[in-house]
Design goal:
heterodimer; A: about 220 residues; alpha/beta; Rossmann fold; 6-stranded mixed sheet; 10 strands; B: alpha/beta; 3 domains; 3-stranded mixed sheet; 25 helices; 13 strands; about 10% strand
């Protein structure tokens, strides 16, 4: 059984009179490992990731996670708190909380009180000194490392990363990517990463290309 | 309801219908409630069977004037008393008036024996004459009366009526109610316009017009004529003329309440409407279009608030004009337009709104600039950093926005509290406390300074001065009316009413009953039954002199005399001993006789034999320094005075002797301000604890006052609540905006597994924190403000009730605020959870 299976998934947006077909009947299966989806801007990569992560129900079709429809048969809250982690391009840390509190938010929702993972991530991501600081005071690279820690702190089985290096410089991008890949491998976490950076494809177990709402495995 | 509102929010017809419907409901139920309340009121009874009308009694006046009164829509019955005047009868003074039928009906006269006169050779006297001299004043006997011109007539006594000075005391300044006729109205005599009814004093059961002589009536007429259209003269008595501006005194307070209540309801509706409309429609769109910060949206909200307040103000004016129009068309018996009807709260609200708006504008500018410069390069871009969510959800930052709200709350609550104090103060100072009929009126132009021989002490407001000489010069109702005027502002020492004093003592109102030093100003106030001494005011030196000169035993006097000894700085070294023979002194005697005794009697029990009465006890100082002498020389001080009301028994015993026992405490003008204030404070402190000195039933009176107070307070509570609701609607909008701007944060947290329950809990805790902050910040500020204001501008201390009411309103505001916050949160959050996480997160992108 595939980890993810998408059956004729369509996603349409309406903006006034205009209808945008972000996903045009996607049929694909995803396995464990590092899956990288690439394509041009506006090709539907992020939408696909959001649909898979349970953020946005598709207009049509099914998204199966381990054989179950995530929108109809599974508890999305449970998936978000325990099974999935998400890394955003814009980091999306919450300013009102400190770095430490940001990382701990998923733990609170999942009822997870085990701090081993938290401590380990702090060490690996080298963010121990940032714990009491406000997200606003961090650099982009630092914020993304915090976001990675937040995504992984509950030891999820799947990580979705939506252009995690989009707002970073080259040096930080390489470091962040390396960290994500290393961590996913270390913790046996499946990674779905969306990017338009062709240089990252070399790290993928499987590559998928999005063109105008259609996906192809390469 | 909310769903209904959402469903039809775009339908203006339904929205307007709802607003109007709610307004009408408020109007109808508000009026019904107050009419019901009026009917339940003890001051509102069958005698006032026509709602809002009253009976009046004119003292003298020509037929034209009487007819003019009869035509007034607010007057149900007009009684006339003519030939009012004072006569002498073998040394006794009798005040006589002839009542017409209506006057008899209106006056609470009850025969205790005999019958009413049937021709103008007969007279009815008050019972107390019989008590004074039962041989001379008896049924069937004749008495000779002599008028001022020396003309003598012989009248036969046909009956006695119950002394009603007691009654009058209890019913002053209010419409006589059913409780005032415990024995029923005795009915009228038969066409006896010129029958000489009684020697009792003439008083103000008409509760509006009390006039001692025709010159005042004439003055009344002149003023009425001069004033002309719509101008009524409402209160005329003794030497003071109270002039009213516009038709008042019929239902002023209740009209006031109705107007405020109705318009308050409309204001609430308007804000409800605005809150719904502008949050769910234009408000959000506007925010987006303008790249609005939360502060900018506050600006818009503040603008709405201002518009609402202005509408309210105009609404009240409009309502007042409308009611005035109806009044002149004789469709309603009252006019609802009152200068103070809602204008003060409106003014304060307006002030609060302006302050709020200025602060909001300032903060808005600051915030907008700050964000503009911090992300100017992104304004036209699509993506925003997390800094875009500057309207943060945590308390620390939102408190900046919350400050204006707290400030507004402080201003509002304080304003209402102060308004209430002012209102109460004015009523008290005019001796009108307890009279809801007058209290809401725009009485008063007083010409107090020009009458009589009293002077105004510089530090004492005009109303704080009582013309005590009048108390001595006149008698009966008029005197007591004046006494009542000063009741709440001067020292009132009841004499033989030991019940009352006991009552006061039992309620700890006389905490200083026995030589307690307060504020460094020691007093000894004692109350002893059975004797007719009313008051001794003396300092230690003076008392020493008195004792030496007259061999007076102060303690015996205090012990056995029915008096209160008010002794500043008394010393034990005065040699007070028990069982010492003493002379008696009544305060009235001090001036001329220096404590002469009548007929050489030295028996302290022989109180009835006192015949010599003077009026003033002059003391050049009641404080610890300065000359202290007794005698004529000391009477020339120009000073403030403190009036003393005597007991009725004393009055009855002394009425024959052309004067009341009354006292005027003259404070030396040259005493230091500190001393003066100290004395004044003490007096005020005492007098505020003594509400009523001569009354047949203190408890009943207190109960009535309690009810009236409660009734009066309700209108303020309504006003305060209106403001609070207005404030809350503003705050609610602010919070909704805050929540709206937090959509992204909630989206992020949803992506990590937060459900709606957790979101609501989080939101509710935040609301609790805000409410607590509201309470913490507002209550102490308001109390401090109130305390300062009342202490320094009104000269009284906060009472428990005042504090309680204010705190209650604030707490209520906090609860309303919290509930509003919660309600809005749940509604908004539900909407968030209906949209996808992606949409939440992409908010503002």
């Amino acid at each position: 059984m595939s980890l993810f299976e998408l059956n004729n998934v369509k996603m349409h947006y309406s903006t006034g009179q205009r209808v945008i077909n972000a996903l045009n009947g996607i049929n694909v299966s995803f396995e464990k490992g590092v899956n990288i989806i690439y394509g041009k801007s506006g090709s539907g990569k992020s939408t696909l990731l959001h649909v898979m992560a349970g953020f946005e129900e598709p207009t049509d079709g099914k998204v199966l996670y381990e054989g179950n429809d995530i929108y109809k048969e599974l508890d999305l809250r449970q998936l978000h708190s325990s099974e999935f982690g998400f890394i955003f391009q814009a980091f999306n840390l919450i300013d009102q909380f400190s770095v430490e509190e940001n990382i701990c938010i998923p733990m609170r929702f999942a009822g997870n009180k085990d701090l081993n993972m938290f401590n380990r991530l702090k060490e690996i991501l080298e963010i121990e000194d940032l714990m009491k600081r406000s997200p606003q005071s961090l650099s982009g690279g630092e914020q993304q490392r915090v976001a990675i820690a937040r995504a992984l702190v509950n030891h999820p089985r799947v990580i979705f990363a939506d252009e995690p290096t989009g707002n970073l410089d080259e040096e930080n991008s390489a470091r962040v990517i390396k960290l994500i890949l290393d961590l996913c491998r270390e913790f046996d976490t499946t990674l779905f990463m969306v990017t338009h950076d062709m240089d990252l494809l070399e790290f993928a177990d499987r590559r998928y290309r999005m063109i105008d709402g259609i996906i192809r495995e390469e | 309801m909310i769903r209904f509102a959402f469903k039809y929010i775009h339908s203006k017809k339904i929205t307007y219908f709802l607003v109007c419907f709610i307004g009408i409901l408020v109007f109808v139920f508000g009026n019904a409630f107050f009419i019901y309340q009026s009917m339940m009121d003890s001051v509102f009874d069958r005698a006032q069977s026509i709602y809002g009308r009253f009976d009046c009694v004119l003292f003298g006046g020509d037929e034209k004037l009487v007819d003019a009164y009869r035509e007034r829509p607010i007057v149900s019955k007009v009684g006339v008393i003519r030939n009012y005047g004072r006569y002498s009868s073998n040394g006794a003074h009798i005040t006589i008036g002839s009542f017409d039928d209506d006057a008899l009906d209106i006056f609470p006269i009850s025969l205790s024996s005999g019958r009413f006169p049937e021709n103008d050779h007969e007279i009815v006297l008050e019972d107390h004459y019989r008590l004074i001299d039962s041989d001379r004043f008896a049924l069937g006997k004749t008495i000779d009366i002599t008028d001022m011109k020396g003309k003598t007539r012989t009248l036969r006594i046909t009956g006695f009526i119950e002394s009603y000075t007691t009654y009058v005391n209890g019913s002053l300044n209010r419409i006589p109610g059913i409780n005032d006729y415990p024995n029923g109205i005795t009915g009228s005599s038969d066409k006896l316009e010129y029958n000489l009814i009684t020697g009792i004093v003439i008083g103000g059961t008409s509760n509006r017009m009390v006039s001692p002589d025709e010159s005042i009536i004439s003055l009344y007429g002149e003023i009425a004529r001069d004033r002309g259209k719509g101008q009524d003269v409402e209160l005329v008595f003794n030497d003071r003329v109270y002039v009213d501006a516009v038709g008042m005194y019929i239902e002023p307070l209740r009209a006031h309440r109705r107007t405020d209540l109705t318009l308050s309801g409309i204001v609430v509706c308007i804000f409800l409407y605005l809150a719904l409309k502008y949050y769910y429609e234009d408000f959000v769109d506007l925010s987006k279009r303008m790249y609005m910060s939360g502060a900018s949206s506050f600006f818009v909200t503040g603008l709405f608030m201002m518009v609402g307040i202005i509408l309210w103000t105009f609404g009240i004016l409009f309502g007042g004009i409308l009611s005035l129009l109806l009044y002149f068309m004789k469709l309603i018996p009252y006019s609802g337009i009152l200068p103070r009807s809602g204008t003060m709260p409106c003014f304060y609200l307006l002030l609060a709104g302006i302050v709020l708006l200025v602060i909001v504008c300032a903060s808005s500018r600051i915030w907008d600039d700050r964000n503009y410069f911090s992300r100017s390069d992104k304004i036209n871009g699509k993506s925003y950093s997390s800094k875009d969510s500057f309207l943060v959800s945590n308390v620390r930052k939102n408190i900046l926005y919350f400050l204006p709200v707290i400030l507004a709350a402080v201003i509002l609550c304080s304003s209402f509290a102060v308004y209430r104090f002012e209102y109460r103060e004015k009523r008290q100072l005019l001796g009108l406390d307890g009279d809801p009929w007058l209290s809401g009126s725009n009485y008063v132009t007083t010409y107090m300074n020009n009458f009589g021989d009293f002077e105004v002490y510089p530090e004492v407001e005009t109303y704080n001065v009582a013309d005590v000489d009048d108390l001595g010069r006149h008698n009966g109702v008029k005197s007591i009316t004046k006494a009542y005027d000063i009741l709440n502002t001067n020292l009132i020492i009841p004499g033989t009413d030991s019940d009352y004093l006991n009552y006061m003592a039992s309620h700890n109102r006389y905490s200083n009953m026995e030589g307690v030093e307060r504020n460094g100003f020691p007093y000894d106030i004692r109350c002893i039954d059975n004797y007719n001494y009313d008051l001794i005011i003396a300092d230690d030196e003076m008392l020493d002199t008195i004792c030496e000169l007259n061999d007076i035993n102060i303690s015996l006097l205090a012990k056995e005399g029915s008096c209160i000894v008010f002794l500043p700085d008394i010393k034990e070294s005065q040699g007070i001993k028990d069982d010492t023979d003493c002379y008696y002194f009544k305060g009235a005697q001090l001036t001329l006789a220096r404590f002469r005794m009548k007929d050489g009697k030295s028996d302290i029990k022989d109180i009835g034999s006192f015949t010599y009465v003077s009026r003033d006890l002059h003391i050049n100082s009641v404080i610890r320094h300065g000359m202290r002498t007794i005698g004529d020389d000391s009477m020339v001080y120009e000073a403030d005075r403190v009036a003393v009301l005597i007991s009725e028994d004393t009055y009855l015993a002394t009425d024959l002797f052309d004067g009341l026992v009354s006292f005027t405490l003259h404070l030396d003008r040259n005493i230091s301000r500190e001393d003066y204030l100290e004395v004044k404070r003490e007096f005020l402190n005492i007098c505020h604890r003594i509400q009523f000195s001569v009354c047949e039933d203190y408890f009943e009176r207190l109960a009535i006052e309690e009810n009236i107070e409660r009734t009066t307070s309700s209108s303020f509570v309504m006003l305060a609540l209106t403001s609070v609701i207005t404030l809350c609607s503003y705050t609610g909008l602010m919070i909704l905006q805050s929540l709206y701007h937090r959509k992204r944060e909630y989206g992020i947290m949803r992506s990590m597994g937060m459900n709606i329950g957790e979101t609501v809990r989080m939101s509710s805790k935040e609301g609790l924190i805000y409410s607590l902050l509201f309470i913490i910040a507002t209550i102490p500020s308001v109390l401090l403000f109130m305390s300062y204001y009342t202490r320094h501008h009104i000269g009284i201390f906060l009472s428990g009730r005042d504090v309680g009411m204010t705190v209650l309103i604030i707490l209520l505001a906090a609860v309303i605020y919290y509930l509003l916050f919660m309600g809005c949160s749940i509604v908004v959050l539900k909407r968030y959870f209906r949209t996808s996480i992606s949409q939440n997160i992409r908010y503002m992108e």
